[in-house]
Amino acid sequence: MGASWLPASLRNTLQCACSPRPMALNRLRIFNTRTRHFSTSPSSRASFAAPEISFGRQREVPQGGRDQAGFQPVDEEERPKFYARLVPSSPSYFTAQPLFTDDLLVLQNLLRRYSTLPVVKPGEQPRMSWRSLTEYRDQVGEAVKSSKYQKIVQILNRLNYIHPSLMPPEVRAAINEYKRDINAFQNIAKVSPVDRLGRTLGAGRRKAATARAWVVEGTGEVLVNGKTLAEAFGRVHDRESVVWALKSTGRIDKYNVWALSMGGGTTGQAEALTLAVGKALMAHEPALKPALRRAGCLTRNPKRVERKKPGHVKARKMPAWVKR
Amino acid sequence: MSTSTTCWKCLSRPSLLSSQLSSRIAQVTVSAPFSSTATSLAPPLIRGNNGPQKGVKGTTAIKKKNRPQQTGKPPMPGERKALRKRVVLSNTNAIEVQDLVDLNQETVDGLLKENASGEYTSPVAGKVVGLPGTTVDSLRAIESFKTSQGWGLFRRPSLLVRKEAIDLTKSLVSAAKDQITQRLIIDGARGTGKSLMLLHAQAAAFAQGWVVINIPEARELVSATSDYAPIPDTMPQLWTQPTFTSSWLEKIQKANKTQLDTLKMTKKHNLPIEVPSEISLSRFLEIGVSDTDVAWPIFQAFWDEMNAKDRPPMLLTMDSTSYVMGMTEYRDKAINFIHSHDFVITKLFMDLFSGAIKMNNGGAVIAATSRSNSPTSISMDLAIMQALQRQAGEKLTRRNPFERKYDERVDSALRDITVMELSGVSKAEARSLMEYWAASGVLRQRVDEQIVAEKWALAGNGVIGEIKRNALNMRI
């Protein structure tokens, strides 16, 4: 969704349309850009060609003039500064990426100001996921290099170390501006508790199938929908999928599984059960998480059947070419 | 049934000459044997009719491709079937397992030892035993070995003695001792070893000197592939299968030769042919083998002889039983399907199951169900379910009042049978089996608790056929 290649006049419209940043924020940014790029003073924005002429205090008021009020002497303090030429609002106007430079300077200033505040120990800071480089590029509409954006990220990481109880509001605001809309680290999976009968419940999905598995300490017996593994799944591969969480961690003779699966086909049900058994096992032994993660028993496979397209026979298949 | 000799399929009468020739037989079997096919009267096949037909326009767009020339000789008649049915019982490349105990009389007696808590204490309980050479020959004669059971992987045929097998052996021994007829149906999920349980019963029976009679595949009794004939003056009409009976007698004679050679004819039988007296039962059966028309009367006489005093017990076994629990493919004179219980061989089994016939010297009739490509008999399924519930002391399942396909004759035959429900083997049994495979050099893997537990779980809690499939068969 890069917009940095567009001419400057078009960028803002496109940003409104496709930027991941909230609309209000975008609009704010657009106004800012305008003012920063072209403003001389707010009052003179109406007409660039002919700014108001001030005649100073010494000029006399003409008698019987057209205007009843006549020319009032304007106070020097009230009157905005008049520049003879257009002056950019930001000194970084002449850099290659003025918006980026501005952002970096703002953050650097914040860091300089608050670098003496106490920080938390490494690892104790709240986990943050910052906007990606592409998102930032779309936001500012400039071709920002990755290494440049890393400077911003470094400062943000340092600011994030400030102790939360002493975090100044402006730093918090700056951090919020660069935070991703959805923080993946806030999504903490709920762990099923071990119930009074010693069971844990895990749920899993794959393709169109859903599965629930109750895992209890035992001798390695498995029942799926009331059937043994051999009756439930004809393919040995599918059977292995069901007990893969137990097999890959060497726990196959330590637990019994009682599972329900529905929807989809055999492969879907078997692999939904992989996930369900994996989660239920992790509730018994949380220390197995890395092993289960490596075995692929905790990751939902998001692949679904590809939709059929018009003009195609299936998702990709094209009709055979026929002469005439 | 009248003595009409019209065959409904070929609508021909047997020639006068053949009836004169077999006038001796005709005293007993007056009606002509039915033939299930009438190939001789079929119109000759028209070959080489490749020319354009009149009035049919050919399309120019698609040209017919010339069929590739058939090269090589087509297999001889029966060659393909022989190849399909070939049972290999030995593999010289397999390692011979040292100190494998044979399943002989001594072992069978030792199997029944129990301790105070009712556990079997025999050293071969839960272990693999070899089958002695004579037993193997006999079992091969009655076609007990099947092609899909993986015998060809090992040096010699051997069996796992699981707990249910010892239970079965125990009931056989008690049947011989008390001179009662055990009636048993073996049921279980696919691959749980139902046919091998039959084989174990047969091997144990051979080891104890019983006479074993087997129907290896009940389908052959009903599929209308062998000829059949009505038995005159029977009400309701009964039917024989002369060729099948004759080959069956041959198998019985071959398998039990050592036992039957020692037994002499003692009774006088009303047979359609003259039989020298005082011959051995083995020789007597050979007469039935050579003459298909008298095969069934010979078997009846044989059955009488076996039920005389001081004869060995008998074991009758049947596999894929659900085939005989309904109508056959055979048709009667009115072109209705004949019920399978109207065929005398099936009727014998069903009378034994219902308790109408008993074996005077004790014995057992055992049938195994099949889960591979066998018809469903809801009457048999219900009877098995009810028997299991009766054995467990549970409330019996009622028949479905809205179901019409129950078979009254099956219901009455299987009213009070005993059912052995097979499921997976225990982990200890699975382990000793896998150790045997490893010792044979077939399973090239370390056998430890972890691997046994894994295979056991993957095989649906120890279903033995699935363990074999998982461990020995090639994974593609």
UniProtKB/TrEMBL annotation, chain A:
UniProt cross-references to Pfam families, sorted A to Z: Ribosomal_S9 (PF00380)
InterPro entries for this protein: Ribosomal_Su5_D2-typ_SF (IPR020568), Ribosomal_uS9 (IPR000754), Ribosomal_uS9_bac/plastid (IPR023035), Ribosomal_uS9_CS (IPR020574), Ribsml_uS5_D2-typ_fold_subgr (IPR014721)
Record-level GO cellular component terms: mitochondrial small ribosomal subunit
Record-level Gene Ontology MF annotations: RNA binding; structural constituent of ribosome
Keywords for this protein: Ribonucleoprotein, Ribosomal protein
GO biological process per UniProt: translation
PANTHER family: RIBOSOMAL PROTEIN S9, SMALL RIBOSOMAL SUBUNIT PROTEIN US9M
Similarity remark: Belongs to the universal ribosomal protein uS9 family.
NCBIfam families reported in the protein's UniProt record: PRK00132.1 (NF001099)
Protein name according to UniProt: Small ribosomal subunit protein uS9m
UniProtKB/TrEMBL annotation, chain B:
InterPro entries reported for this sequence: Ribosomal_mS29, Ribosomal_mS29_fun
The keyword Transit peptide is annotated on this UniProt entry: yes
Signal peptide boundaries: none
Predominant localisation class: mitochondrion
Cellular localization per UniProt: Mitochondrion
Pfam families assigned: DAP3 (PF10236)
Stretches the record annotates as Disordered: 42-79
This protein's UniProt keywords: Mitochondrion, Ribonucleoprotein, Ribosomal protein, Transit peptide
The keyword ATP-binding belongs to this UniProt entry's keyword annotation: no
GO cellular component: mitochondrial small ribosomal subunit
GO biological process: mitochondrial translation
Gene Ontology molecular function, alphabetical: structural constituent of ribosome
Family to which this protein belongs: Belongs to the mitochondrion-specific ribosomal protein mS29 family.
Entry protein name: Small ribosomal subunit protein mS29
Organism this protein belongs to: Amylocarpus encephaloides
